[in-house]
Each structure stands twice: as C-alpha cells, then as structure tokens.
Design a protein that fits this description.
- The protein is an alpha+beta fold and about 220 residues long.
- The chain folds into 2 domains: about 5-50 and about 130-190; about 55-125, no CATH class.
- It is built from 6 helices and 8 strands.
- It has helices at about 5-15, 30-50, 135-155, 155-170, 180-190, 205-210; strands spanning about 55-60, 60-65, 75-80, 85-95, 105-110, 115, 120-125, 220-225.
- Strands 4-7-1-8 form a 4-stranded mixed β-sheet, with helices on one face. A 4-stranded antiparallel β-sheet has the order 2-3-6-5, with no helix packed on it.
- Strand 5 (about 105-110) and strand 6 (about 115) form a beta hairpin.
- Helix 1 crosses helix 3, helix 3 runs antiparallel to helix 4 and helix 4 (about 155-170) runs parallel beside helix 5 (about 180-190).
- The chain is elongated, with a radius of gyration of 22 Å.
- The protein starts with a helix and ends with a strand.
C-alpha cells in the first residue's frame, strides 16, 4: 500500500490515540494541527541527518544574472536551487563523480540563489522524498516523533514524554538515541563502502590497487539534472 502524508498523520494519531482525519486541511483540531505542523516535522527529520536513501547529486541550472540588472552580483554565475532541496547542502563540486573533482568550489547564497565563479556546478544534498518511498524504519521514526507532538497538542504530557523517548531516546542521549539511532544504523547499511581516493588518501599501493580507475563507480546515489 502506498503511503501518503495523510496516512503518516493518521498512524501518528493512532499512537495517541485519537480520531483519524479524512484530510490534512479538514476543519478539526487534529486536522488543523497536522496541516500546519506535519510538513515541518517531516522536513526536520529529513534534514537532521545525511540519509543515504534521500541523497541526491544534481547539476545546478544557471540563470542569466543580466535578467535583473539591479540585483547585486556577488559572483559571475547565478544558479537556481534544486526544487527538492531539504536542509543544507552536503557538498559542492564541478563533476557528478567526486573522484573527478579536485578542490571544492566557492559558493555563496544570496537572494534565494546560489552564486559561484565556477561553472558547471554540481551539488550533493538531501532531497525531499515522498512518503511512499520511505524505508519502513524511517516511516516508523517519523510516525512516532510526530505522535509525540500530537500528544503534546492533546495535553497528554505523560504520553508525549514516552513517545518522545521512544523516538529520540533518553534525555541523556540528547536526541541521538531511540528510533533515530536505529534508523541511522539501518541507513548506514545502504551507504556505499568508503573507498580510498588515489592521490588523496594514500600512495603507490592504493594507486596500484585501483589501476588508475575511479573507486567511486557504482556508488548508487541518484544523479539528477
């Protein structure tokens, strides 16, 4: 069964428990709360960690700075942000293949755009992923974390505390335990094994091992653009 944002909210409501909603924008207290708060919780959890399942690499689209002559021009090239960008950028480079990129280009953000003197420009980032593409362990984390917020909204303080502990761990774990820690461990299984980069990580033995080839072939990350 494909999951939607409504399904995630209703699964969270079931944990409180409460009456399920028919739409995120329905005229009910829980519907209104989900409509306003669920997107923020989803984006927060997606951007909290560099999830392998949501990692993407994209070639940024260039925009002609001359289109707005009154706009400050801090760098030569102006780029549009990826429409599915969530949170911060992980890396900038001049090629989709990190082994082919030497040095990190300087990039700044201004006026809702990226600017750089380097072109073309690739970005590695966490991309928005629809609920029906989430791994089960990530879905469980989001449901439980949002259920804690719903319990707070319903003034069920003990329930909220228990759900928050289940999602994020004990206070001593500072939000790094619970289902979040389990999700990170599961996500790590999807990550490509780190490879040494000839000329950066090692000397003749590593270079001989790779025989001049790219150790990053088949990393499995989505390349967009």
């Amino acid at each position: 069964m494909p999951f939607t944002d409504l399904d995630i909210c209703n699964l969270a409501i079931d944990r409180v428990p409460g009456d399920r909603i028919d739409a995120l924008n329905e005229e009910s207290p829980l519907g209104g709360f989900c409509f306003v708060n669920y997107p923020h919780k989803r984006d927060f959890i997606l951007s909290k960690y560099r999830w392998t399942f949501a990692n993407a690499v994209a070639l940024l689209s260039r925009i002609d700075p001359a289109a707005d002559p009154n706009e400050p021009r801090p760098c030569e090239h102006k780029f549009a942000k990826p429409g599915d960008l969530v949170g911060a950028v992980h890396d900038w480079r001049v090629s989709a293949d990190p082994a082919a990129s030497r040095g990190r280009p300087y990039v700044m953000e201004s006026g809702g755009f990226f600017w750089s003197d380097t072109a073309p420009l690739y970005v590695e980032y966490t991309a928005m992923r629809r609920e029906d593409t989430w791994p089960a362990w990530f879905r469980q984390l989001v449901v439980t974390a949002f259920a804690a917020d719903l319990a707070d909204f319903c003034q069920l303080s003990t329930k909220a505390r228990d759900l928050r502990s289940e999602a994020w761990g004990t206070p001593g774990e500072n939000g790094e335990g619970g289902l979040y820690a389990s999700a990170r461990n599961e996500d790590a299984r999807l990550a490509p094994q780190r490879q040494l980069i000839a000329g950066v990580d090692a000397g003749p033995l590593v270079q001989a091992r790779w025989a001049g080839g790219s150790p990053f072939a088949g990393r499995g990350w989505e390349v967009q653009g």
